[in-house]
Amino acid sequence: MKVAIVTGAAGGMGRAITDQLLTDGSQVVGVDIDGPALLTMAADRVGFTPEAVDLTDPEAIADLFDRVTARFGGVDALVNNAGTCFMSDFPDIPAEELTRQMEINFHSAFHCCQGAVKAMAGRDGVRKIVNISSNGAYNFDVFDPPHYRASKAAMDTLTKDLARRYARDKIAVNSIAPAMTETPLFNVLTEEVLARAISAMPHGVAMQPDQIAAWVRFLISAAGDVSSGNIIILNQGRDVR
Ligand SMILES: NC(=O)c1ccc[n+]([C@@H]2O[C@H](COP(=O)([O-])OP(=O)(O)OC[C@H]3O[C@@H](n4cnc5c(N)ncnc54)[C@H](O)[C@@H]3O)[C@@H](O)[C@H]2O)c1
Q: Does 140 have pLDDT greater than 90?
């Protein structure tokens, strides 16, 4: 039995990732700051453990990994999916907003990776870390503000560092970097910005969370054992030059 931790499990993408990993028979520990939403999810999902944790708190993350290891004996997969996009624009980004952006998107993933590599020691097979980055770290024509881009670029550098560092320990680390995907995160955008961004998608529509989740599922499956250190961009071919 595989044990997977999915952060941001109560959000649009996290819920889809959770459901696909449950379908494959994994035990899924769903972590989110939204405790009530996790409890609703737990009511109709077998193999799902809700964990209400604020991922900006490193001690709470360490406690989370201790609990999961005590209960399940270790961890086989971690999906760092929790995140948000603050929309103040340069140069008028308050210092506090920059700090929050990095804490929610990058520090949370960093601390979860620290917990995960320890909890993965001694487990069978190739263990997996999948970081949900963003196409915004690479495409400078779309709306993303610089602190959001930087938080995801930092995450992708962490992906490559850990992939290299843990290759011989059989921990595979990859990033999935999606473009416009229809989730509650769309609410941070004005209607005008949203419409422009969707019209720039080559298929003329936003992507759906289950389309992104399928790639996460693939990386966590046996087929994903041979991929590590890759940043996989999902955007319908929007930025091909
Ligand atoms: N939707 C898109 O178009 C898109 C594009 C590229 C990347 N992404 C990335 O995908 C990931 C998932 O986003 P989504 O689109 O599903 O958004 P979402 O808002 O639906 O989900 C994000 C989840 O993260 C949780 N979260 C936020 N702060 C937290 C904290 N401090 N502790 C614990 N949980 C916290 C939220 O409660 C929420 O459930 C994010 O990292 C986002 O940056 C999204």
A: yes
